[in-house]
């Protein structure tokens, strides 16, 4: 199906926005009026630029405060519209968006609104233009899509239809099923946006918090299914306002936007739709109307089944390997041709790479191996969803591994799982060094926590959901001593792959937060004692935390004292499951967590995150433990 994006959804100059949209694979654009007004290009030059890029101009928007106003004001509105329609002919746009009025002088009179829109459509038809009337969620008198449609229907003009916007519909809690009562040929345009579900004024919500489909909490796919059942033949177009896209680069935002529409079409596909009807046009300006094409097909999701490895890069391996040894890991193998060592305990595997370029802030988690039942299929899906495919420098005898880059730059390798993986997969590149894996006090990687640049957080959630097929949990805010951190976890159904995506609230604070690897153990107390007895200190936890635990929960004799002694944090969920966990010091940007889940606990200890963050800040500030 054709795809389009509003230029307001991208940052930069209009030329930069158009280039980014074209390179991301969009078919068309909505030209936002302000982008035209502030730029040096004339409408004819913009039209030529779009043609050179292979883009159609699908919509010009917005025309505001037109209908149901006093006669003198409406006469001025028609004069304004006449000028804009002439401009649109030069631009090559044949549809204009008219928003429901918010003018204080507008009156609550549907008959007058219909008469004014009919007169506007008469004028538009003279220019070969269609008018798409949209209900703003905060419209003065018209704020719902069904109300807007009743006015359009009453006007009864062939050049007048409606524009449906998922944000305006879903933010008001309107039932989208009624969309199916609108003839598809009268739906002139469809704008799509998702949003989180906060409680705030709808106008502020709209202007600052819209996001691409799949990044928020709206059922955008359900709405699109209703629209397609009408026979709608136009494009799926994105109109997103938020503070992140205004400051992020246009090129990566356009790729993220296009990925969201590819994933949305996959989600919508099972719906049955009427055959598309021919769109209503009024003397088209540039070409015959474009008919709808089938929804785009992408390779099916291949959900990872486990962590094959986590790769740490560092210029100085000793601090990291000292921590790993204290945790009970053994150096079991070395890469045949690269300075990479494999440290293993149970099924938990850590690669320590001393040959890669390292940031100035030291050790970091650079790559993740994901066990996959079909690595080739996983890679094909990733590429179809515009994930950057990474070239891999390897010797001829090295195992071929497909890898893509996540939005934060983390390399994701798709690795074969099963008994043959040791001989035919990534493990075949390593030669044993004679040390068997340690007895599993730690038995696997429980989860990874990856800090995201602030402007990539929503993109990262969408990436992990769509490209990897992971399920996203609710977003959680946790208190940091210097603000808030936002976190959202993604996981596979059985919890063998869990990734917590985290971002600091401050745009300037996107590099200071550490990454961590959490190791699952069946006895966190024994694991913590072994670590401490090996001479490696755990993160100190304030005594006040344990006083609060004593107030919230009842413990067996001596249990709380043991937690206090070892710095173990405790949490309990509503179903009675419990979580016990503790942390190592930070080396560079990396620290480790020992974690024990009992009773089916699936959380990450969000209640304890502020305690951990404050303790890490205290260590970093004091310089104790050599913290990174």
UniProtKB/TrEMBL annotation:
User: What SUPFAM superfamilies does UniProt report for this protein, alphabetically?
Assistant: Glyoxalase/Bleomycin resistance protein/Dihydroxybiphenyl dioxygenase, Xylose isomerase-like
Keyword Oxidoreductase in the entry? The reply is: yes
Reaction it catalyzes = 3-dehydroshikimate = 3,4-dihydroxybenzoate + H2O
Q: Where is the signal peptide?
A: none
Asked if Oxidoreductase is a keyword of the record, the answer is yes
Instruction: List, for all copies, the residue spans of the domain called VOC.
Output: 306-417, 444-585
* Pathway this chain belongs to: Aromatic compound metabolism; 3,4-dihydroxybenzoate biosynthesis
The name under which this protein is listed is 3-dehydroshikimate dehydratase
Q: Give the highest taxon in the source lineage.
A: Bacteria
Q: Which GO terms describe its molecular function?
A: dioxygenase activity; isomerase activity
- Role played: Catalyzes the conversion of 3-dehydroshikimate to protocatechuate (3,4-dihydroxybenzoate), a common intermediate of quinate and shikimate degradation pathways.
- Give the originating organism: Streptomyces pratens
One family from Pfam that matches here is Glyoxalase_5
Keywords, in A-Z order: Dioxygenase, Isomerase, Lyase, Metal-binding, Oxidoreductase
Instruction: Please give the family membership noted in the entry.
Output: Belongs to the bacterial two-domain DSD family.
């Amino acid at each position: 199906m054709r795809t389009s994006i509003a230029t307001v959804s991208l940052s930069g100059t209009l030329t930069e926005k158009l280039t980014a949209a074209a390179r991301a694979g969009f078919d068309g654009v909505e030209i936002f009026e302000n982008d035209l007004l502030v730029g040096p290009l004339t409408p004819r030059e913009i039209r030529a630029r779009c043609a050179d890029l292979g883009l159609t101009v699908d919509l010009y928007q917005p025309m505001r405060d037109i209908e149901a106003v006093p006669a003198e004001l409406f006469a001025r509105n028609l004069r304004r519209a006449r000028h804009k329609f002439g401009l649109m002919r030069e631009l090559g746009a044949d549809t204009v968006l008219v928003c429901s009025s918010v003018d204080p002088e507008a009156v609550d009179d549907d008959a007058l609104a219909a008469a004014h829109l009919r007169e506007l459509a008469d004028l538009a038809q003279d220019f070969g233009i269609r008018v798409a009337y949209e209900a703003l969620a905060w419209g003065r008198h018209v704020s719902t899509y069904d109300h807007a449609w009743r006015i359009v229907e009453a006007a009864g003009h062939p050049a007048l239809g409606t524009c449906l916007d998922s944000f305006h519909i879903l933010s008001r809690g309107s039932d989208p099923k009624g969309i199916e009562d609108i003839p598809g040929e009268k739906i002139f345009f469809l704008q799509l946006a998702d949003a989180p579900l906060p409680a705030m004024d709808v106008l502020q919500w709209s202007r600052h918090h819209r996001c691409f489909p799949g990044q928020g909490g709206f059922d955008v796919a359900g709405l699109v299914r209703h629209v397609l059942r009408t026979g709608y033949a136009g494009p799926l177009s994105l109109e997103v306002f938020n503070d992140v896209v205004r400051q992020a680069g246009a090129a990566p935002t356009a790729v993220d936007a296009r990925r969201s529409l590819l994933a949305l079409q996959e989600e919508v596909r099972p719906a049955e739709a009427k055959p598309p009807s021919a769109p209503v046009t009024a003397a088209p300006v540039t070409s015959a109307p474009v008919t709808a094409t089938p929804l785009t097909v992408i390779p099916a999701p291949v959900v990872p089944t486990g962590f094959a490895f986590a790769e740490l890069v560092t210029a100085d391996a000793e601090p990291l390997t000292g921590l790993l040894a204290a945790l009970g890991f053994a150096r079991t193998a070395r890469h045949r041709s690269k300075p990479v060592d494999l440290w293993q305990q149970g099924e938990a595997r850590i690669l320590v790479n001393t040959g890669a370029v390292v940031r100035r802030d030291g050790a970091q988690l650079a790559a993740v191996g994901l066990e996959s039942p079909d690595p080739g299929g996983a890679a094909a899906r990733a590429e179809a969803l515009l994930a950057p495919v990474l070239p891999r420098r390897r010797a001829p005898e090295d195992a071929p591994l497909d890898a893509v880059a996540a939005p934060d730059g983390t390399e994701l390798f798709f690795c074969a799982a099963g008994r043959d993986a040791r001989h035919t997969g990534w493990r075949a590149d390593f030669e044993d060094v004679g040390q068997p894996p340690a007895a599993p006090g730690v038995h696997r990687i429980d989860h990874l926590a990856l800090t995201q640049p602030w402007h990539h957080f929503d993109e990262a959630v969408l990436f992990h959901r769509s490209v990897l097929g992971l399920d996203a949990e609710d977003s959680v805010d946790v208190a940091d001593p210097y603000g808030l951190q936002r976190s959202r976890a993604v996981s596979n159904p059985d919890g063998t792959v869990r990734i917590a995506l985290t971002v600091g609230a401050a745009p300037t604070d996107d590099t200071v937060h550490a990454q961590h690897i959490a190791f699952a153990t069946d006895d966190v107390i024994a694991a913590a004692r072994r670590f401490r007895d090996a001479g490696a200190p755990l993160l100190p936890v304030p005594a006040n935390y344990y006083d609060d635990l004593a107030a919230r929960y009842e413990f067996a004799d001596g249990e709380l004292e043991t937690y206090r002694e070892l710095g173990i944090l405790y949490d309990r969920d509503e179903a009675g499951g419990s979580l016990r966990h503790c942390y190592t010091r930070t080396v560079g940007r990396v620290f480790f967590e020992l974690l024990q889940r009992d009773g089916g606990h699936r959380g990450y200890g969000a209640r304890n995150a502020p305690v951990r963050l404050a303790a890490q800040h205290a260590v970093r500030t004091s310089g104790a433990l050599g913290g990174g």
